[in-house]
Amino acid sequence: MSPSIDFALLTTAAWEARGHAYAPYSQFAVGAALLGADGVIYRGCNVENLSYGLTICAERAAVCQAVAAGCRHFTAMAVVADTREPISPCGACRQVLAEFGDLPIVMATREKTEQTTLNALFPRASTGILDRP
Ligand code: THU
User: Fold this and answer.
1) What's the pLDDT tens digit per position in 54-70?
2) Distance 124 CA to ligand 1 centre (A)
3) Nearest residue CA, atom 10 of ligand 1?
4) How far is the CA of 55 from the centre of ligand 1 (A)?
5) 29 in ligand 1 pocket by Cβ < 6 Å?
């Protein structure tokens, strides 16, 4: 799948972003890296808030970084956390990512890497509203 994408580089960027996570409430740091069609890697980390529901996940933070820089076409995403099994984007992040189309997603721990796609995680996201003529 997507042989020209440097997933190792993208994963390294996600680990670096994870180092900036602001997670005083959960102590659970997450990093994400989004490869733009412009070749730029946009990074995100989770940013928590004492009003817990206002927490921004790493994946959505990366999307916001990209869009604010003028990039709306994405080639791949990496998500990392220091867990036993790789974590996958939450439902809210899947919905936000789906706004910009399908993309391969690498999910990594320190020991293990899995690859999937947004469409596999969030099927039929754009059926109807986004596909309307
Ligand atoms: N979190 C993410 O940033 N991304 C995920 O894919 C899962 C969860 C964050 C939200 C919260 O700050 C912490 O991890 C615990 O759920």
Assistant:
1) 999 999 999 999 999 99
2) 24
3) 57
4) 8
5) no
Residue 26 alpha carbon, nearest atom of ligand 1: 15
* Pair of tokens at residue 2: 């997507």
Question: How far apart (Å, rounded) are the C-alpha atoms in residues 8 and 78?
Answer: 9
Low-confidence residues of the chain: pLDDT under 50: none
Could you list the beta-strand ranges (E) of the chain: 30-36, 41-45, 74-81, 104-108, 113-117
Q: Report the DSSP pairing between strands 74-81 and 104-108.
A: parallel
Is 59 noted as a catalytic residue in this protein?
Answer: yes
Distance CA 9, CA 88 (A): 19
pTM exceeds 0.70, yes or no: yes
Distance CA 85, CA 66 (A): 27
